[in-house]
Specification:
The chain contains 13 helices and five strands. With about 280 residues, the protein is α+β, with helices and mostly antiparallel strands. A five-stranded mixed sheet has the order 2-3-1-4-5, with helices on both faces. Helix 11 (about 240-250) packs across helix 13 (about 265-279) and helix 12 (about 255-260) crosses helix 13 (about 265-279). The two termini are about 35 Å apart.
Length: about 280
Amino acid sequence: MARPLRIQYEGAFYHITARGNEKKDIFTNDADRNRFIKILESVAEKYRWIVHAYCLMSNHYHLAVETPLKNLSAGMRQLNGVYTQSFNKKHGRIGHLFQGRFKAYIIEKENYLLEVCRYIVLNPVRAGIVHNPLEWEYSSYRKTFGDRKRYKYLYPDLILSFFSNSLAEAQKRYTKYVKEGIGKESPFKDAQGGFILGGEKFVKSVLENDKHIDCEEITKRERYVSRPNLRDIFAGKQRDKGISLAINQWRYSLEDVGKFVGLHYSWVSRIAKKAKNKT
């Protein structure tokens, strides 16, 4: 199974979700949800996160988070770890609460953030729990219309700014926009490589910036979602140059490259190492 996203950089936007182990509940009552929100508030303050939307269900939660600092993984360890300890202590249990590691999509703000935030607050409607998202207390939807200064961890102003400079008008248009989203398909069907939601230019900018990527965490499928095929890599290039690019830059296997150029993989390895040592 592919590992969750581990691309981090300053100013990134994410949709994050974490589910209960064996699909069991992570929130059994309102006290659990309130405790989670308090922990989220402390994590947001410590790691300078900006929460644009959230929704707490029974066996999972959703967050739309902006990270001014490069610290998504550290913040998530704190959030899920502290909540697990609190939940276990409160309910007299031990062991894992969450199913593996969290799942995260990196989001292009301009084209997808608004749609993602709508998807998040409509979770209880899609689940058939309520007919109107206003009926669900444990999401950011209600708080968009309340005293926003009360919620230090939540910043709905960016979402509202997409609609109007007037607060009242922005809230009115936001309400209409959310209602129009009922029944629509998930925006994540458009995710590139299963973890980046954005246009072609955005996807390319994220993947080509190596400093964003933790190579220990990103699977080959995710790391090279836009990787060219071998024919394109070798087009117009000398054989050894093509081998170097395919192996050292795009991480094709020795066997695959060997079959393509008609050489034993041991010779491919020598050529690639020789080229790498020259750089």
